[in-house]
Amino acid sequence: MQIRFENLLWAGMALLLSIAGLIAGRLIRHLDRISHTDSVTGLWNRRCFYLRLAEEEARACRRKTPLCIAMIDIDNFKVINDTYGHIAGDLVLSELAAIFKNNVRTSDIVTRWGGDEFAIIFCGISLQEAYAVMERIRHEVEARFRSSYGLAISAGVISPESDQAVKDLLLTADRALYKAKTQKNVVVALVDFS
Length: 194
Fold this sequence. Notes:
Helices cover 61% and strands 16% of the residues. It contains 6 helices and 5 strands. The protein has helices at residues 2-35, 46-63, 77-84, 86-102, 127-149, 166-183, and strands spanning 67-75, 109-114, 117-123, 152-158, 187-189. A hairpin with a 2-residue loop joins strand 2 (109-114) and strand 3. Helix 3 packs antiparallel against helix 4. The chain is globular.
Protein backbone atom coordinates (compact mmCIF):
# COMPACT_ATOMS: atom_id res chain seq x y z
CA MET A 1 0.00 0.00 0.00
CA GLN A 2 2.79 2.35 0.93
CA ILE A 3 4.50 1.89 -2.46
CA ARG A 4 1.31 2.66 -4.40
CA PHE A 5 0.74 5.82 -2.38
CA GLU A 6 4.31 6.99 -3.08
CA ASN A 7 3.89 6.20 -6.78
CA LEU A 8 0.65 8.19 -6.86
CA LEU A 9 2.33 11.02 -5.01
CA TRP A 10 5.22 11.12 -7.52
CA ALA A 11 2.81 10.89 -10.46
CA GLY A 12 0.77 13.74 -9.01
CA MET A 13 3.87 15.87 -8.50
CA ALA A 14 5.03 15.13 -12.06
CA LEU A 15 1.61 16.13 -13.37
CA LEU A 16 1.66 19.36 -11.34
CA LEU A 17 5.17 20.20 -12.59
CA SER A 18 4.10 19.53 -16.19
CA ILE A 19 1.09 21.82 -15.81
CA ALA A 20 3.24 24.50 -14.17
CA GLY A 21 5.74 24.22 -17.06
CA LEU A 22 2.96 24.64 -19.63
CA ILE A 23 1.58 27.66 -17.81
CA ALA A 24 5.04 29.21 -17.46
CA GLY A 25 5.75 28.61 -21.15
CA ARG A 26 2.50 30.28 -22.19
CA LEU A 27 3.19 33.18 -19.85
CA ILE A 28 6.68 33.68 -21.27
CA ARG A 29 5.32 33.61 -24.86
CA HIS A 30 2.59 36.07 -23.87
CA LEU A 31 5.06 38.44 -22.22
CA ASP A 32 7.38 38.21 -25.23
CA ARG A 33 4.50 39.02 -27.58
CA ILE A 34 3.22 41.99 -25.61
CA SER A 35 6.73 43.39 -25.18
CA HIS A 36 7.03 43.50 -29.00
CA THR A 37 3.58 44.81 -29.93
CA ASP A 38 1.94 48.20 -29.86
CA SER A 39 -1.07 48.24 -27.54
CA VAL A 40 -3.12 50.65 -29.69
CA THR A 41 -2.70 49.14 -33.16
CA GLY A 42 -1.65 45.57 -32.43
CA LEU A 43 1.29 46.06 -34.81
CA TRP A 44 4.87 45.23 -33.97
CA ASN A 45 6.63 48.03 -32.06
CA ARG A 46 9.96 49.77 -32.59
CA ARG A 47 11.83 47.24 -30.43
CA CYS A 48 10.60 44.47 -32.67
CA PHE A 49 11.45 46.53 -35.77
CA TYR A 50 15.13 46.57 -34.82
CA LEU A 51 15.17 42.82 -34.10
CA ARG A 52 13.39 41.92 -37.32
CA LEU A 53 15.46 44.34 -39.40
CA ALA A 54 18.67 42.61 -38.29
CA GLU A 55 17.15 39.22 -39.16
CA GLU A 56 15.86 40.35 -42.54
CA GLU A 57 19.12 42.10 -43.46
CA ALA A 58 21.03 38.90 -42.74
CA ARG A 59 18.51 36.84 -44.73
CA ALA A 60 18.60 39.26 -47.69
CA CYS A 61 22.40 39.15 -47.67
CA ARG A 62 22.48 35.33 -47.58
CA ARG A 63 19.87 34.95 -50.32
CA LYS A 64 21.03 37.98 -52.28
CA THR A 65 17.48 39.36 -52.36
CA PRO A 66 16.37 42.98 -52.06
CA LEU A 67 15.17 44.61 -48.88
CA CYS A 68 13.32 47.93 -48.65
CA ILE A 69 12.17 50.12 -45.80
CA ALA A 70 9.33 52.61 -45.78
CA MET A 71 8.94 55.24 -43.09
CA ILE A 72 5.41 56.67 -42.91
CA ASP A 73 4.03 59.80 -41.25
CA ILE A 74 0.36 60.71 -40.93
CA ASP A 75 -0.13 64.23 -42.27
CA ASN A 76 -2.08 66.54 -39.93
CA PHE A 77 -2.73 63.84 -37.33
CA LYS A 78 -2.52 66.31 -34.44
CA VAL A 79 -5.78 67.84 -35.70
CA ILE A 80 -7.59 64.54 -35.00
CA ASN A 81 -6.50 64.43 -31.37
CA ASP A 82 -7.13 68.16 -30.87
CA THR A 83 -10.55 68.17 -32.56
CA TYR A 84 -12.03 64.74 -31.83
CA GLY A 85 -9.98 63.52 -28.84
CA HIS A 86 -7.39 60.85 -28.27
CA ILE A 87 -9.84 57.95 -28.39
CA ALA A 88 -10.84 58.97 -31.92
CA GLY A 89 -7.14 59.34 -32.72
CA ASP A 90 -6.48 55.79 -31.48
CA LEU A 91 -9.33 54.48 -33.65
CA VAL A 92 -7.85 56.22 -36.70
CA LEU A 93 -4.42 54.75 -35.89
CA SER A 94 -5.99 51.28 -35.68
CA GLU A 95 -7.76 51.75 -39.01
CA LEU A 96 -4.54 52.94 -40.63
CA ALA A 97 -2.69 49.93 -39.20
CA ALA A 98 -5.30 47.66 -40.80
CA ILE A 99 -4.85 49.40 -44.17
CA PHE A 100 -1.08 48.95 -43.95
CA LYS A 101 -1.38 45.25 -42.99
CA ASN A 102 -3.99 44.54 -45.68
CA ASN A 103 -1.80 45.99 -48.44
CA VAL A 104 1.43 44.13 -47.73
CA ARG A 105 2.41 40.48 -47.81
CA THR A 106 2.53 38.41 -44.65
CA SER A 107 6.33 38.25 -45.02
CA ASP A 108 6.59 42.06 -44.72
CA ILE A 109 6.92 43.60 -41.27
CA VAL A 110 4.58 46.47 -40.38
CA THR A 111 5.46 48.38 -37.21
CA ARG A 112 4.25 51.38 -35.31
CA TRP A 113 7.38 53.47 -35.06
CA GLY A 114 5.81 55.80 -32.50
CA GLY A 115 3.17 58.52 -32.26
CA ASP A 116 1.83 59.01 -35.77
CA GLU A 117 4.70 57.27 -37.54
CA PHE A 118 4.91 53.75 -38.91
CA ALA A 119 7.59 51.68 -40.64
CA ILE A 120 7.41 48.75 -43.02
CA ILE A 121 10.19 46.32 -43.88
CA PHE A 122 9.58 44.91 -47.36
CA CYS A 123 11.34 41.59 -47.81
CA GLY A 124 12.40 40.35 -51.22
CA ILE A 125 10.94 43.11 -53.38
CA SER A 126 12.63 45.88 -55.34
CA LEU A 127 12.52 49.55 -54.48
CA GLN A 128 10.18 50.12 -57.41
CA GLU A 129 7.78 47.44 -56.13
CA ALA A 130 7.91 48.83 -52.57
CA TYR A 131 7.23 52.29 -53.97
CA ALA A 132 4.19 50.96 -55.86
CA VAL A 133 2.83 49.32 -52.68
CA MET A 134 3.27 52.57 -50.75
CA GLU A 135 1.50 54.51 -53.52
CA ARG A 136 -1.41 52.05 -53.34
CA ILE A 137 -1.54 52.50 -49.56
CA ARG A 138 -1.34 56.28 -49.91
CA HIS A 139 -4.28 56.30 -52.32
CA GLU A 140 -6.35 54.06 -50.06
CA VAL A 141 -5.65 56.24 -47.01
CA GLU A 142 -6.51 59.36 -49.01
CA ALA A 143 -9.79 57.82 -50.22
CA ARG A 144 -10.72 56.68 -46.71
CA PHE A 145 -9.69 59.71 -44.60
CA ARG A 146 -9.18 62.82 -46.75
CA SER A 147 -12.81 63.95 -46.82
CA SER A 148 -13.74 62.93 -43.28
CA TYR A 149 -10.63 63.97 -41.35
CA GLY A 150 -8.41 65.73 -43.87
CA LEU A 151 -5.76 63.06 -43.35
CA ALA A 152 -3.21 61.66 -45.74
CA ILE A 153 0.15 60.00 -45.38
CA SER A 154 3.65 60.87 -46.46
CA ALA A 155 6.22 58.11 -46.90
CA GLY A 156 9.89 57.72 -47.67
CA VAL A 157 11.05 54.45 -49.23
CA ILE A 158 14.63 53.27 -49.47
CA SER A 159 16.62 50.20 -50.38
CA PRO A 160 19.71 49.92 -48.21
CA GLU A 161 23.24 49.45 -49.46
CA SER A 162 24.52 45.98 -48.58
CA ASP A 163 27.08 47.27 -46.07
CA GLN A 164 25.05 50.16 -44.66
CA ALA A 165 24.93 50.32 -40.86
CA VAL A 166 21.47 50.33 -39.25
CA LYS A 167 21.99 53.86 -37.91
CA ASP A 168 22.86 55.15 -41.38
CA LEU A 169 20.02 53.17 -42.91
CA LEU A 170 17.48 54.78 -40.60
CA LEU A 171 18.96 58.23 -41.22
CA THR A 172 18.53 57.67 -44.96
CA ALA A 173 14.94 56.47 -44.47
CA ASP A 174 14.23 59.46 -42.25
CA ARG A 175 15.69 61.78 -44.89
CA ALA A 176 13.35 60.28 -47.50
CA LEU A 177 10.41 60.71 -45.12
CA TYR A 178 11.37 64.32 -44.37
CA LYS A 179 11.46 65.05 -48.09
CA ALA A 180 7.95 63.56 -48.45
CA LYS A 181 6.63 65.49 -45.42
CA THR A 182 7.67 68.81 -46.94
CA GLN A 183 5.22 68.12 -49.78
CA LYS A 184 2.62 66.04 -47.84
CA ASN A 185 0.47 63.24 -49.27
CA VAL A 186 3.35 61.89 -51.34
CA VAL A 187 5.70 58.90 -51.46
CA VAL A 188 9.38 59.63 -52.04
CA ALA A 189 11.99 57.04 -53.04
CA LEU A 190 15.61 58.12 -52.97
CA VAL A 191 16.46 56.39 -56.27
CA ASP A 192 15.35 57.23 -59.80
CA PHE A 193 13.51 54.34 -61.48
CA SER A 194 14.51 55.23 -65.05
